[in-house]
Amino acid sequence: MSVSVRDALRMAALYVVLSILWLVLAQVLLQGMTDDPLALTVGQQINVVIWVLFSAVLIFVSRARLLNFIGIGVRLRGEDRERLRMAAAVFDSTLEGVLVTDRQGLIVHVNRAFMRITGYQQDEVVGQRPNKFKSGRHGVAFYQQIFATLAEKGEWSGEIWNRRKSGEIYPQWQTIRAIHDDAGELSHYVAVFSDISAIKHTEQELAYLAHHDPLTGLPNRLLFTDRVEQALVTAQANKRGCGLLLLDLDHFQSINDGLGHTIGDQLLKLVGERLGEVVGSGVTLARLGGDEFGVLAENCQQVGQAGKLAQRIIERMREPFVFDGHRLFISVSVGIGLFPSDALSAEQLLRNADSALFKAKSSGRACYALYTEELTAHAQHRVETAGELRRALEQDELRAYFQPVHDLATAKRVGVETLVRWQHPQRGLVPPSEFIPIAERTGLIAEIDAWVLRQACRQMVQWQREGRQMAFVAVNISSRLFGQHALYRQVAEVLHETGLDPALLELEVTESAVMEDPEVALEQLHRLRELGVTLAIDDFGTGYSSLLRLKRLPVQKLKIDQGFVAGLPHDDDDIAIVRVIIALARSMGMQVHAEGIEQQEQASFLLQEQCQLGQGYWFGRPVPAGDLDWE
Ligand code: C2E
Ligand code: MG
Ligand code: MG
């Protein structure tokens, strides 16, 4: 229950009137007794005092009835007083600013938070109108709408910009309420508000973060896609063309893995800055994630223009990045999509540029490629296969096949190489060449290789148990996984889980994977070697090994690529190459293993040249574990 100012005044007036009445009455009484009140006896004076006190107590006790009598329906019990005190404390200590006006809109009270937020003291605003704080940001209609809502609903809430005493304008979240007295008449307005400038600021920051990449400060994929959409609308209206370039750094992963993410991040930042310099202003440059950047060239009429821009980017990226004592070289592949010739929507354009990028990557990297129709079909096939591959893993459609490896001198089988197959429900047995590159691009290769590794180890343990002795089971490791630290852990886990003796496991890594980043490879191979497994370089002769580096690698075996074996024993070039590889391996204390042996004379030639191991259709094709012969 609250007491309005008007009521308080009425109460005070009542006390004053009653007191005056009483004094007059007491005077009359005293005068009735004697002309000189000072002449009263002590007994009479005590009686008068008692009478006065008694009457005062009576008035106090019956004050509620008296107040009721004069129309103030309040009972200020102790409880009410307590509540009032609490309300006053809340009013003054709340963080929200509070402003009370009378029904005419003149300020009658403000709290401490009001003074803190606005910078005005109470005496500077009492008696004034709240329009003193107007920011000028809202028009007349805005305020009219507030009053209309107040009149209709008795309450209004919303964001409103006001001005502080300092002149600064700031946003408030304000709730205004119309207060009515017991008779239902409008008596006051109370406005409660909070300063939301801090929130607004955070909102702006959040909006910025949502649309920008924190590392480079460039627009992110979300903003880029939005810009592409807008650009297409404008281009369509103006009958102009647009070019969309997707850029991907080549072998960036090896920098991250080899030098750490901090260096990787610094490099990405510098790449962003350099790209900014190349493309110049008026062209949207974005970091789409990881090592992928996007460039949107509006007003790009011809293919040639986009191609030239791509070439400029590729060339500038070839220059070394020098920072913190590092001198790093990186190349970039670019895929180009054009509007309106290639695609009509932003989504399609992005997809096409991505296909073109894939083409650029597949054709040797550090180059650019354009999107064409035929690429779309290729991309679609890839997308379909990628989707199906996931299902293949889930539904156990992969198969581990084993191809025998023979000792050329004794013609005995000494080991097997595990080769993956996909038992596709419609397409039948799919060879790895059709899905491994897709798995590598989509990242599924990690799961596939882990699965093959586990199968191979399990199978080898089973053969051991059955007394079927072999010196090794070989497993291929994708170049995509080879650079990653997780590989070591994965191999260790599988060995532990299956209980296979590490000496019986051989890991094959292609020559190109090793030479892509020899330093990382060296570290990785050492770690794997520590596990006790044997290491082989697959498809040897197809990469560009540096002999010096090869010598430092902890590798026990070189596998001569089948391309050189095919020409044996007649092709002079192949003969020369095979001889060199065998000599090289032997000089470095490595075993030599020839693959792709299809005829007996190839095997004889290789044995004569002192190649130790042989694999190929001549000895046996890759087959399921159950189909291997055991004499
Ligand atoms: P690779 O590791 O060099 O495997 C040898 C390939 O040569 C196998 O092809 C094998 O079937 C084939 N081959 C064996 N003997 C002969 C022969 O006498 N004549 C001919 N023409 N070919 C022969 P496949 O199984 O199609 O595998 C192809 C490649 O796919 C493999 O080359 C390997 O790089 C990759 N691959 C296979 N399985 C896996 C796997 O589980 N993980 C990874 N990452 N890659 C795998
Ligand atoms: Mg292999
Ligand atoms: Mg091979």
UniProtKB/TrEMBL annotation:
Pfam family, one: EAL
Alphabetical list of CDD domains matching this protein: EAL (cd01948), GGDEF (cd01949), PAS (cd00130)
SUPFAM superfamilies assigned to the protein according to its UniProt record, in alphabetical order: EAL domain-like, Nucleotide cyclase, PYP-like sensor domain (PAS domain)
Keywords: Membrane, Transmembrane, Transmembrane helix
Span of domain PAS: 83-128
Sequence ranges assigned to domain PAC in this UniProt record: 156-208
Superkingdom in the source lineage: Bacteria
Protein name in UniProt: EAL domain-containing protein
Taxonomic lineage: Bacteria, Pseudomonadati, Pseudomonadota, Gammaproteobacteria, Pseudomonadales
